[in-house]
Specification:
The complex is a heterodimer. By secondary structure, chain A is an alpha+beta fold. Chain A contains nine helices and four strands; from the N terminus they run ααβαββαβααααα. In chain A, strand 2 (69-72) and strand 3 form a beta hairpin. Chain B is α+β, with helices and mostly antiparallel strands. The chains are: A alpha+beta, B alpha+beta. At the A-B interface, helix 4, strand 4, helix 5, helix 7 and helix 8 of A face helix 4, strand 13, helix 7, helix 8 and helix 9 of B.
């Protein structure tokens, strides 16, 4: 039997090594808000002829758009992010760039959000995450109501979820700083889905521990928890791998639109496997012994 | 017939039905094809905010928004959009009308058509005491709204409100220029007669949203009909649609817009399909190699699961979006989960020395609590996500929540009913009896 409980502090240290930079990055750089949160217009332009990034930037500056984010998006496509513009302005921008750069342009996608909409989005997202956490805490406390101190199980589960979320959000923050990755409504979707999947993993492990407690596997709480975790290793790794297979496939072949959603899931599910085996049960054991 | 055989027959019948349902052959049960969201078929998603400070105080907010929505619907339908969506969203952030236009080519034109108030006013020139037109600082004549006395003796302003909804674009026989021909309703005819009488041989200004579009000289007293000139063909076409649907009661402004080109949509659809196929094949290989017979059975159950899922998407119907497909693909991963749980339990029970049949029953019985508890939490997350998407009016977020929810619910059903029935069948048929066939190595 693997000693999951005995090595708990090693696991906590490993987590800390990832979480501390995440928190630092969040504190220093924060997240780069996309148009969903900060309002503005995001365009994907497809050019008929070859156009350099610097040319495009110059062309935009000549049209009066100097505070823009321009990124190449492959195969003659560019992603342009600027302040909110109206439909007339976007037409002018297209015509202006066409004459400026001597290439036909197709606006393959346009996303525009005004400040009225963006302001509520941040607040609603915060509400959603809080409501989801409370809902899960309540449900787990209910599901483990026959155990001594059911709230404790719920809180340990929430702590393990926060662990996963901090890593996901932290990595997005680091990527935002390093590569300009912006977060959007689909990132939020990914984060909430991570909450669902993480809890799923934790519950399976907790269920085993509950089962072992009922059957009275050992008089020591630590040993009982360790049994539960060991018995879940096969399941957690295999389910995790199977889910990761499909997500990696989505990440590699699935197109740009869902990129943020899939990346959040990818990181979240990987850390979820770890936290369900190496964090959640250990927290329970530490809390029990601390009493 | 034993209970297991009965279940097997039910599953096969359902399977056949679902297979029939997703094949795009006839129109029964909405079988035309899957409903695709804007991000997959291309089109425009628009959210208009209503400026209710300009509303008629006699009406409630809800009435105004409903009225605007109906008029926008008429405009969109007259413009020739297939399967448009027009919805009102009222929340503490404001009053919005959401419009989805799949497959529209000229989105800028459509935005103008939908959001323009299209208030048509008739105005006469302001005259001084000598009967000469009053000019403003730039030397342009000043206009005052033309009024007449209605049938009930009340004074009324002459506006496009009194048009019959049959305005049409015609070409002028003299100039061959496009014009909008309209007819007055009963009240309008009474007012127009007075106005034309008063303004004989003088210009009558026609204003669209306070912009002068033409000022013809009145040559005769007219009652029933009239024309509006001075427009391009496209302008005339849009104006005719707007006049027939009625002027919007309050000004509207675009606050959110998402356009997806048709090619990008097709491309995304193709990529998601590849991703789904690649992911599923990997999962199937993994399950069969690792869990042998249980894995094979799980994969068969997974195929049934996938088919049921697609059939539900089609029959409800669920509008498929890119994140929605991602949700479906993720739920395939989750669907495997229950099967893995059961297969693992089964291995343990076999190692513990139970007979195959007993091991299966025990394996299922003891994995059930985990499957149930774990999936409920996913439901909680889905419900919150759906609410959030609804608040945003974000069809993508809602799409993900919907498919993940359906997928998770259905995976519980497949794990409990389908996988178990298949496994029992395998055991009772004695097709695979050694425990190594279930991944247990002695």
């Amino acid at each position: 039997m693997i000693d999951f409980i005995g090595k708990k502090y090693w696991f906590f240290i490993v987590s800390a090594i990832v979480i501390v930079p995440s928190i630092l990055s969040l504190a220093i750089f924060g997240l780069k808000p996309g148009v969903d949160f900060s309002s503005g217009t995001a365009l994907t332009l497809h050019f008929g002829n070859e156009v350099e990034l610097s040319q495009l930037r110059e062309g935009l500056a000549k049209l009066g758009y100097d505070r823009v984010v321009v990124q190449p998006a492959g195969e003659g496509d560019f992603f342009v992010r600027l302040q909110e513009i109206s439909s007339e302005e976007s037409k002018k921008l297209k015509d202006g760039l066409e004459t400026e750069l001597g290439s036909t342009i197709e606006i393959t996608s346009l996303y525009s959000v005004s400040p009225t909409i963006a302001a509520g989005t941040v607040r609603n997202t915060a509400i959603a995450i809080i409501v989801a956490s409370i809902g899960i805490l309540l449900y787990i406390s209910f599901a483990f109501r026959k155990m001594p101190k059911p709230i404790r199980w719920g809180i340990c589960a929430i702590a393990a979820i926060c662990h996963d979320l901090l890593i996901v959000i932290g990595i997005f923050s680091i990527l935002g700083w390093a590569t300009g990755l912006e977060i959007d409504a689909l990132f939020v979707t990914g984060v909430l889905a991570v909450v669902g999947v993480s809890v799923n993993n934790i519950v399976v492990v907790f269920d085993r521990i509950r089962d072992n407690l009922r059957r009275g596997v050992s008089r020591s709480f630590g040993v009982t928890v360790n049994c539960g975790i060991t018995e879940s290793v096969g399941r957690s790794l295999n389910t995790g791998l199977a889910t990761l297979f499909v997500i990696v496939a989505l990440y590699l072949f699935g197109g740009v639109t869902t990129h943020n959603l899939v990346l959040a899931l990818l990181i979240g599910i990987a850390t979820g496997i770890y936290s369900s085996l190496c964090i959640a049960g250990q927290l329970l054991a530490v809390w029990e012994r601390g009493k | 017939m034993s209970r297991n055989t009965f279940l097997l027959v039910v599953i096969l019948v359902l399977f056949g039905f679902c297979l029939w349902a997703i094949l795009p052959n006839s129109k029964v049960f909405g079988r035309e094809g899957f409903k695709l969201g804007l991000d997959l078929r291309g089109g425009s998603h628009l959210v208009y905010e209503a400026d209710l400070s300009k509303k008629d105080p006699a009406q409630t907010d809800a009435e105004v928004i409903e009225g605007v929505k109906r008029k926008i619907e008429r405009r969109v339908n007259a413009y020739g959009v297939t399967e448009p969506v027009v919805q009102t969203i009222q929340n503490e952030r404001g009053n919005f009308v959401l419009v989805q236009l799949p497959g529209v080519k000229d989105i800028d034109e459509a935005i103008k058509l939908i959001g323009q108030t299209a208030q048509l006013d008739f105005k006469e020139q302001k005259l001084d005491e000598q009967g000469n037109p009053v000019l403003d600082e730039q030397g342009n004549p000043e206009w005052v709204i033309a009024k007449g006395v209605g049938e009930d003796g009340q004074e009324r302003e002459l506006t496009g409100k009194y048009f019959k909804p049959n305005a049409a674009v015609v070409l002028s026989p003299q100039t061959n220029e496009p014009e909008v021909a309209f007819e007055w309703d009963h009240e309008g005819a009474i007012l127009f007669e007075q106005v034309t009488q008063r303004n004989l041989n003088k210009p009558l200004g026609i204003f669209l949203d306070n912009t002068l579009i033409s000022a013809p000289i009145v040559r005769a007293v007219i009652k029933e009909r009239g024309i509006i000139e001075g427009l391009t063909v496209d302008e005339a076409r849009l104006l005719a649609i707007q006049l027939n649907s009625g002027a919007l009661d309050v000004p509207m402004k675009v606050v959110e817009r998402r356009d997806v080109g048709a090619t990008l949509g097709e491309d995304s659809l193709r990529k998601s399909l590849y991703a789904g196929i690649a992911g599923t094949v990997l999962v199937i290989l993994f399950m069969i190699i690792y869990y042998r017979v249980s894995g094979l059975v799980a994969c068969l159950a997974l195929v049934v699961y996938g088919l049921f899922n697609l059939a539900i998407f089609k029959l409800i119907p669920v509008v498929l979006t890119l994140p929605g497909i991602a949700g479906f693909i993720v739920s395939i991963g989750m669907g495997v989960d229950g099967n893995v749980l059961v297969a693992e339990r089964l291995k343990e029970e076999l190692r513990g020395g139970r007979s195959l049949g007993a091991a299966i029953e025990e394996g299922f019985r003891r994995s059930w609590t985990a499957i149930w508890d774990a999936n409920i939490t996913v439901f909680i997350a889905c419900a919150v996500l759906y609410w959030l998407g609804n608040q945003f009016g974000n069809f993508m977020v809602m799409g993900f929540a919907t498919t993940l929810f359906i997928g998770t619910a259905l995976s519980m059903f497949t794990q409990v009913v389908v996988t178990r029935t298949f496994l029992r069948t395998v055991v009772s048929s004695r097709m695979a009896t050694s425990s190594s066939a279930y991944g247990v190595w002695k």
